[in-house]
Known about the structure:
Distance between the termini: 30 Å
Strand content: 5-15%
Helix content: 55-70%
Number of domains: 2
Structural class: mainly alpha
Mean pLDDT: 93
Largest sheet: 3 strands, antiparallel
CATH topology of the largest domain: Arc Repressor Mutant, subunit A
Low-confidence stretches: none
CATH class of the largest domain: Mainly Alpha
CATH superfamily of the largest domain: Winged helix-like DNA-binding domain superfamily/Winged helix DNA-binding domain
Shape: elongated
Number of strands: 3
Amino acid sequence: MQLSKTEEELMNIIWKQKKAFMKDLLDAYPEPKPATTTVATLLKRMTDKGFVAYKSLGRSREYFPLVKKKDYFSNHVNGLIKNFFNNSPGQFASFFTQETNLSKLELEELKKLIDQEIQKK
């Protein structure tokens, strides 16, 4: 399941804070801050989707992530590879290295990472 762009923005705040009350979430937004009702609606949708849960403490709710950031983005990237690159990681890697204007140093660092993964296998 995917998050909308606004849900992803809020999810990034929750991942960063690990646990947060509504006030903490609102404080973490840059200006102009969204309305409390907007954030509450996003939290409800994200709870319904299984990305966020909360613990009731009196009249307040402390929100926390149910999905790890790494898992979400791994799923997202795998979906991109499947849907836009014919399920070919090689096509994705080719596109990524040619179209992202990586410097020579960045390409060398990427090559080191790939070489390390090859050694592991």
